[in-house]
From TrEMBL:
Keywords tagged on the record: Signal
This protein's name: LolA-like outer membrane lipoprotein chaperone
Any coiled-coil regions, as ranges: none
SUPFAM superfamilies: Prokaryotic lipoproteins and lipoprotein localization factors (SSF89392)
A Pfam family hit: LolA
Gene3D superfamilies: Lipoprotein localisation LolA/LolB/LppX
Signal peptide boundaries: 1-16
Alphabetized InterPro entries for the sequence: LolA/LolB/LppX (IPR029046), OM_lipoprot_carrier_LolA-like (IPR004564)
Length: 170
């Protein structure tokens, strides 16, 4: 019986996806290259496997992007506006990671909505995510101080639109 239990645990650990998280949060630097131009963003994000996410951009301008199952809300402080859009097939980072397949020791690949994501691990957590979006922009997200499977309170994902901001619905 002990051997059977050991084999079951071993099989699970071999086939389990090390990128399947209940939550992931991190500081990030995102470089977007389009033709000759390049823009660098930085901030932090919080993602839960239940389709809730918040990306907080500090540079080059302050912005918060909230994701739910059905909507994305972008709150742009410099413009004093919030843009509310219906969400269709938006990538959920937790699901992209969970569906990634190992292609080498520290490199995984995930396909989502006709976009190929390459995920590089460092110390068993995502460190870099590279992909080319549908507009042919090359995007590289470098993660720092990654925390996984932490409890992230529901309040973190409550959309906060300051009073007086214009609300644009698309």
């Amino acid at each position: 019986m002990k051997i059977l239990t050991f084999l079951a645990v071993l099989a699970f650990s071999v086939f389990a996806n090390p990128l399947e998280f209940k939550s992931i949060q991190s500081e990030f630097t995102q470089v977007v290259k389009s033709n000759e131009a390049s823009v660098v963003y930085s901030g932090e994000f919080y993602v839960r496997a239940d389709n809730k996410a918040l990306w907080v951009y500090d540079e080059p301008t302050k912005k918060r992007i909230y994701f739910t199952d059905s909507h994305v809300v972008s709150v742009e402080d410099a413009l004093e506006q919030a843009i509310v859009s219906k969400l269709e097939n938006a990538p959920n980072l937790a699901k992209i990671l969970a569906n990634a397949k190992r292609i080498s020791e520290n490199l995984y690949k995930a396909d989502y909505d006709d976009v190929e994501y390459l995920i590089t691990l460092k110390n068993a957590v995502p460190a870099v995510i590279d992909y080319k979006d549908k507009l042919e922009n090359k995007i590289k997200i470098t993660l720092k101080n990654v925390k996984t499977n932490q409890v992230i309170a529901d309040e973190k994902f409550l959309v906060k639109i300051p009073k007086g901001y214009d609300i644009i619905t698309q």
